[in-house]
């Protein structure tokens, strides 16, 4: 067992020795530890010493084997050392010489190094400045554009600066300062552009009338050109006959015609500037502030805000423009300025509509126009109702037509304006009737109610040319001779034609058909005849100082005027080109008017004849015991002159008797008459008998039996 353990120990020590020989010294610790952990470290030391001695012997053998080579090498080394020393000395000497010679080169190289360093720095600086200078230049350009109020280019420059240049130099501090300043610059540009827009809105508000005036002048020039190219035969023929008529009317009293050639309104005034070149709205207004502000707000993403603000402000301005001045109705200039402002407003809006995309829309403008149209029509209805001068009403009509034509040229519907003009036409007719009533009164009051004397052929032709009168017997008579009618006949006839011309003037440019114009003229002329002229004649007949001769002359005059009605029909037909046989054509009532006037003359004469020979006495006293009054003696009654005979005389006589019977009956049945004395009643009976006697006497031939007495039968029964 001891030997076995010894063999194992020896093997272990051998293994440890091999491990020590082959292992790195840094890892030998664990191996040695295993030696000391055992109890045979003494033996191991012996083994180790023996191994060291073996290695020493091997080293010695090897050295002895290589010793001669070693000696030879040492000898060679000694020889080389001398040569090396010489070489060293040469190198040292060469180095010294090289050092002495290279000092200037070193200095030059140092200078070159410094230059190269500076060159690199300069190149880097240039590169950086190349990046920075455009940024600074763009920023300077931005400030200059803002200073010169070029806001939209400034905004484009700012956008270019922010998106293109600043990202390239974002690591510089000045760049960060610019980036921080960009929002403030945007707000400043936005505020400045809005300020320019406000100035623009204020400017066009002040100059809307000038813009509208220019637009209406253009429309007037276009209309004049259209009239030259295609003249309407109806209108031109009417004007020609008017001139011929005016040239032959020398018997008219000065200033008796309410419508003169000066009443052509704005059309004649505007014709003076017909040859001038009228600028357009874009020539009068600089719209660039609107475009710039629109572009700026679009770029800033606030287009809707801008559109809302613009429309709101323009709507406010529209309400101001549509507010008419309180004294607008006093002069035509008031209406003209009002129309100029409205036209100017919508011309600007129409220009904005066609030069911008979406700032204003057609629906928005249509809404504004509907509001403007309703307010304008309401204002015109109110203010035109104050106009009592037909010349002013006619000028207003011409101005409204030009106003409508101007806006219609810009695409605005104006049918309601022309419908309103038809309403104004009724008012115009009323003002004409009032004015012609004064003309007729002046003619009738100034007439001498005696036939017109004619001394020579020239005067005769003038009167015949003025009034359609033909009498073969009168033409054969030598001069001097007399017309059967007085001077008021040709004057009244002339004024009726003047009235027709005045009505025709209003119908021009209203886009009415010939039938509508004819109907309008005939209706107005009927009112002139049946109301105005008839009332004037009745007032003359009712005058207390109208004598028999005067009444007879009135009958003769109305007879000739009645005959002239067919010439008035022809006259209206000639100027309207509408035949009287046309369906729905209104007929003139002149014949009836003059017949009624003659009936009034006869009624006045007959009533005067009867009442002049009647006297009665009514005593109204409930407590009186007066004696009856003495009956009056009936007087004889004259017959009507032969000139009054006929159906008209019969009608007038019957009307007079009925009127007299009704008046006596009303007098008898008055509420204030509470008591009648016998004398008064007897006297009243005598008066009734006088009336019955007058009826039986046949004052007008042609009555059958007691027809005329029947007018007093109710009075006799009472």
Task: Provide a descriptive summary of the structure in words.
The chain has 718 residues and is an all-alpha fold. The chain folds into four domains: 1-106; 172-226 and 281-412, no CATH class; 426-450 and 486-618, Exocyst complex subunit Sec15 C-terminal domain, N-terminal subdomain (Tetracycline Repressor, domain 2, Orthogonal Bundle); 651-717. The chain is 73% helix and 1% strand. Helix 6 crosses helix 12 (332-355), helix 12 (332-355) packs parallel to helix 14 (390-409) and helix 15 runs parallel beside helix 19. Pfam families: EXOC6_Sec15_N, Sec15_C. Residues 416-598, 644-718 form the Exocyst complex subunit EXOC6/Sec15 C-terminal domain. Residues 47-216 form the Exocyst complex component EXOC6/Sec15 N-terminal domain. This is EXC6B protein.
| DSSP strand content | under 5%
Cα distance spanning the termini: 196 Å
The total number of structural domains is: 4
Radius of gyration: 64 Å
Quick one: how many beta strands?
2
Categorize the overall geometry: rod-shaped
Uncertain stretches: 233-275, 610-645
Report the order of strands and helices.
HHHHHHHHHHHHHHHEHHEHHHHHHHH
InterPro entries: EXOC6/Sec15, EXOC6/Sec15_C, EXOC6/Sec15_C_dom1, EXOC6_Sec15_N
GO cellular component, one term: membrane
Protein name: EXC6B protein
Keywords: Coiled coil
Layout of helices and strands, plus pairs?
Layout: H1 2-22, H2 29-37, H3 41-147, H4 151-165, H5 173-206, H6 208-229, H7 233-248, H8 266-270, H9 281-284, H10 288-299, H11 303-321, H12 332-355, H13 362-384, H14 390-409, H15 415-446, E1 453-454, H16 457-466, H17 472-476, E2 481-482, H18 488-507, H19 514-542, H20 548-563, H21 565-576, H22 590-611, H23 647-668, H24 678-696, H25 713-717
Antiparallel strand pairs: 1-2
């Amino acid at each position: 067992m001891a030997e076995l353990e010894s063999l194992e120990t020896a093997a272990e020590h051998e293994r440890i020795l091999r491990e020590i020989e082959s292992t790195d010294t840094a890892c030998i610790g664990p191996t040695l530890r295993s030696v000391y952990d055992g109890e045979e470290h003494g033996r191991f030391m012996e083994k180790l010493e023996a191994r060291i001695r073996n290695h020493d012997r091997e080293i010695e053998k090897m050295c002895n084997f290589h010793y001669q080579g070693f000696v030879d090498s040492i000898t060679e080394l000694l020889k080389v050392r001398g040569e090396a020393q010489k070489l060293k000395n040469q190198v040292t000497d060469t180095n010294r010489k090289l050092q002495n010679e290279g000092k200037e080169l070193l200095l030059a190289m140092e200078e070159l190094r410094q230059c190269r360093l500076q060159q690199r720095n300069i190149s880097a600086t240039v590169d950086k400045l190349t990046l920075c200078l455009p940024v600074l230049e763009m920023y300077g350009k931005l400030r200059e554009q803002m200073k010169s109020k070029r806001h939209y280019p400034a905004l484009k420059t700012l956008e270019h600066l922010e998106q293109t240049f600043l990202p390239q130099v974002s690591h510089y501090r000045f760049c960060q300062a610019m980036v921080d300043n960009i929002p403030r610059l945007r707000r400043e540009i936005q505020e400045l552009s809005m300020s320019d827009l406000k100035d623009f809105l204020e400017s066009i508000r002040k100059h809307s009338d000038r813009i509208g005036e220019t637009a209406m002048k253009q429309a007037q020039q276009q209309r004049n050109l259209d009239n030259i190219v295609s003249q309407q035969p109806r209108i031109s023929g009417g004007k020609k006959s008017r001139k011929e008529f005016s040239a032959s009317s020398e018997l008219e009293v000065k200033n008796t015609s309410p419508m003169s050639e000066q009443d052509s309104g704005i059309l004649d005034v505007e014709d003076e500037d017909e040859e001038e070149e009228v600028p357009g709205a874009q020539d009068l207004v600089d719209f660039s502030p609107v475009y710039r502000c629109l572009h700026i707000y679009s770029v800033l993403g606030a287009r809707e805000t801008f559109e809302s603000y613009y429309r709101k402000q323009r709507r406010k301005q529209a309400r101001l423009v549509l507010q008419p001045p309180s004294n607008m109705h006093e002069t035509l200039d008031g209406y003209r300025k009002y129309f100029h402002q409205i036209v100017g407003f919508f011309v600007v809006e129409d220009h904005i509509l066609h030069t911008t995309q979406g700032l204003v829309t057609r629906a928005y403008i249509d809404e504004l126009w509907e509001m403007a149209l309703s307010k304008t029509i309401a204002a015109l209805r109110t203010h035109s109702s104050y106009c009592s001068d037909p010349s002013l009403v006619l000028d207003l009509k011409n101005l409204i037509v030009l106003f409508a034509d101007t806006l219609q040229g810009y695409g605005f519907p104006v049918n309601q304006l022309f419908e309103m003009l038809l309403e104004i036409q009724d008012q115009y007719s009323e003002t004409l009737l009032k004015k012609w009533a004064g003309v007729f009164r002046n003619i009738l009051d100034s007439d001498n109610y005696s036939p017109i004397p004619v001394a020579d052929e020239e005067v005769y032709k003038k009167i015949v040319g003025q009034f359609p009168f033909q009498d073969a017997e009168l033409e054969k008579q030598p001069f001097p001779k007399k017309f059967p009618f007085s001077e008021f006949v040709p004057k009244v006839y002339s004024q009726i034609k003047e009235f027709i011309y005045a009505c025709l003037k209003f119908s021009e440019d209203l886009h009415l058909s010939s039938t509508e114009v004819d109907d309008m003229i005939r209706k107005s002329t009927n009112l002139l005849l049946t109301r105005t002229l008839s009332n004037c004649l009745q007032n003359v007949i009712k005058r207390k100082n109208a004598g028999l001769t005067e009444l007879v002359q009135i009958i003769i005059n109305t007879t000739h005027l009645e005959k002239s009605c067919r010439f008035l029909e022809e006259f209206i037909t000639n100027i309207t080109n509408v035949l009287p046989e046309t369906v729905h054509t209104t007929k003139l009532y002149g014949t009836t008017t003059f017949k009624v006037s003659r009936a009034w003359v006869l009624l006045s004469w007959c009533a005067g004849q009867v009442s002049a020979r009647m006297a009665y006495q009514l005593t109204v006293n409930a407590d009186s015991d007066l004696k009856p009054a003495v009956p009056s003696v009936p007087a004889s009654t004259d017959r009507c002159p032969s000139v009054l005979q006929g159906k008209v005389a019969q009608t007038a006589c019957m009307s007079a008797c009925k009127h007299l019977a009704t008046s006596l009956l009303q007098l008898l049945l008055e509420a204030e008459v509470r008591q009648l004395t016998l004398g008064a009643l007897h006297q009243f009976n005598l008066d009734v008998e006088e009336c019955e006697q007058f009826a039986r006497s046949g004052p007008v031939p042609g009555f059958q039996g007691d027809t005329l007495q029947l007018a007093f039968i109710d009075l006799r029964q009472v």
